[in-house]
Amino acid sequence: MRIDLFRHEDIDGFLALAAAEGWICGRWEFDFLLRSFPQGCLVAREADLPVGYVTSIKYGESGWVGNLLVRKECRGKGVGTALMKQALAALSEAGAGTAWLTASPEGKPIYESLGFTAVDVVNRWVGEGIGGKVPIREALSRAEILAIDQAGWGDRRDVLIDVVSGRGQVWGSRDAFLVSQPCADGIQLGPWGGTDRGALLLLDDALVGAGRGTRVFLDAPIRNTGQTSLLLGMGFSIRGSTLLMCRGEAPIYAPERIFALASMGSMG
Questions:
Q1: CA pseudo-torsion sign 27, 29, 34, 36
Q2: Mind listing the pLDDT tens digit for each residue in 91-108?
Q3: pTM score
Q4: What's the CATH number for 2-96?
């Protein structure tokens, strides 16, 4: 087995395996990741056949590891651990003192062996758009959005906020923002951050903007308790959960300011 860089021609193979696992991800993510942090996006190969994948991306002083996926027939042979070690080394060499990821129950032992600890649980919520007339609110500046996001994660994630804002609809109100992005056969809500006072107002805006009956997804940390009753009241239900884990320098993590992640597990 050898490990080398994730190539653009590897994307289709990954997406096919991811679809079989029920993952929600799109080609645009890999175009973004390979452009932004190519040294941390890796593929394990056996005789030129890709058997495992991982991606990572560095933000300010932290990084995120995602898309760790190994072919079923190759699992239990150390492929995932080898990929993780190289991705973490790439982040460390780039100056990331903290690494984040979301873990399935199957992946949790691998990550714990590499020094990750659980800091939260992330629930996958699914609901529907409601349609109607979208209210007009004052737009937030890029600087305001970045500051709100940093208040939750303790780091500047300019490159991530810029790419998701550019491909989706940005909703802003008071001291909160929400991005709704096209995703699979519906709309993904996230990143979504701020304080209760402003953030919860934006859910109605986004659901109206999504259109009646459109499937809506979001990944939300359970330590933000302010949104749970609201999501349930809007007909959302939990369809799964993962562990939010980190390693390295203790992060400034404020879950009460994080209402949804920016991706469905791959980029934070």
A1: positive
A2: 999 999 999 999 988 889
A3: 0.94
A4: 3.40.630.30
| Residue-level pLDDT at 134 | 79
For domain 123-260, give the fold. Answer: Aminopeptidase (3.40.630)
Q: DSSP string covering 198-258, please? A: HHHHHHHHHHHHH-TT-EEEEEEETT-GGGHHHHHHTT-EEEEEEEEEEEESPP---GGGE
Distance, CA of 61 to CA of 120 (rounded, Å): 20
For the chain, the structural domain boundaries read 2-96, 123-260
For residue 2, give both structure tokens: 């050898």
- Rounded to whole angstroms, the Cα distance separating 16 from 56 reads 20
Which pLDDT belongs to residue 133?
Answer: 84
pLDDT value of position 222: 96
pLDDT for residue 99:
98
Domains 2-96 and 123-260 share a fold: yes
In this prediction, residue 74 carries a pLDDT of 87
